[in-house]
Amino acid sequence: MRIGMIAGEYPPARGGVGAYTRILARALVEQGHDLFILSRPNAEERDSSLQLDQINSWSFGCWRQVSAWAKKNALEIVNLQYQTAAFKMSPYIHFIPQNVSAAPVVTTFHDLRVPYLFPKAGALREKIVWHLAKTSDGVIVTNEEDEAQVSDLPRHVMIPIGSNIEAPYVDAEAIQEWRRKLQQGNEQLIAFFGLINASKGLDVLVDALKSLLTTGENMRLVIIGDTGSSDPTNIGVQQAITERIVSLGISHQVTWTGYLPDRLVAAVLNAADVIALPFRDGASYRRGSLMAAVQQGCAIVTTQPQTPVKAFVDGENMCLIPPDDALALAKALRSVLQDSRLRGRLKQGTATLSQLFEWPDIALNTVQFFEQIKALCSH
């Protein structure tokens, strides 16, 4: 199948939807499909199996360039990778499906949160997202919360995302090297991974660390990641967290790694004793950082899903706590760090859970849905 993917963010953008698009595209190529990517002007792709074209902008009339791109490459399906911030808040991408007739348009919603359009846009913001969903020939959602919202749409499917790092195996020597590098003394290591964003609850984790250190625990917080480029508010969030760390007097117990390539992310995740991901909106399939920690078989402490996720079992494959609760987070981290049997059980649980999120299966399920939509649209 000749598949086109539209991505507001794509390498050199780090993490998030850009990473998802690239990993999925590569998995589809490995299964014999032809992949064409359309993204913003500074996007790059060195893999010759993926053809990358750059759009001038996501402004009014962007669908004309999308149509020309789809016709030029004789695409059989166009897959719009939608996430609120990825297209620089452009309202015009929401009208791509109804203005592109060269191929059916399937929109993958990485979240259904409404975008900022302009001051006092009000209800229009929600309407424009649903306009995109209803005019798309098919809709893919990545988590159970969003599936519940699109249940009335006739052509939809839920396909969870996989890990947003491409590093399935890390040797023991690299793990130990990073552990020696990060530790100062015999500290236990708590790691946070992902783009720095207000929804990630990193400030709550900082408060939990302060609580643990106050009671005499010997721990270090390792923050893996940076602000990324899709959401400009992330810079302010990181600044506020840095200031909070300083004001709490715990700077000496926090290490920022900044951006790391995938193989080093995997090494640091494995070097840590526990991964803390206190999402404000709860653990979800939509979180690539959570999927990365699951893929690496880590012991994870995260927040309770807003919508129940059957695969996430408290005490078996992750510890689940209420959101925005630094004391509960500190208590859970202490339990995991002090109880080696619990830690081992969680790691075994995530190793088993990871089998549900393998990229070859994700790619196969995606193509099957594309084929269904193509057949329906040909009648």
Q: Could you describe the largest sheet, including whether it forms a barrel?
A: 7 strands, parallel
From the spread of the alpha carbons, the general shape counts as elongated
CATH arch. level architecture of the largest domain: 3-Layer(aba) Sandwich
The chain-level structural class is: alpha/beta
The CATH homologous superfamily of the largest domain is named Glycogen Phosphorylase B
Task: Tell me the helix content.
Answer: 40-55%
What low-confidence regions span 5 or more consecutive residues with pLDDT below 50?
A: 115-122
Structural Rg: 21 Å
Beta-strand content bin: 15-25%
CATH class of the largest domain: Alpha Beta
Description of the structure:
With 379 residues, this protein is of the alpha/beta class. The protein has two domains: 2-162 and 358-378, Glycogen Phosphorylase B (Rossmann fold), CATH 3.40.50.2000; 172-357, Rossmann fold (3-Layer(aba) Sandwich), CATH 3.40.50. Helix content is 40%, strand content 17%. It is built from 13 helices and 13 strands. The strands form two sheets. Strands 3-2-1-4-5-6-7 form a seven-stranded parallel β-sheet, with helices on both faces. The chain has a six-stranded parallel β-sheet with strand order 10-9-8-11-12-13, with helices on both faces. α5 (144-149) links the parallel β6 and β7 (156-158). The longest helix is centred in the C-terminal third of the chain and has 20 residues, at 359-378. The two termini are 18 Å apart.
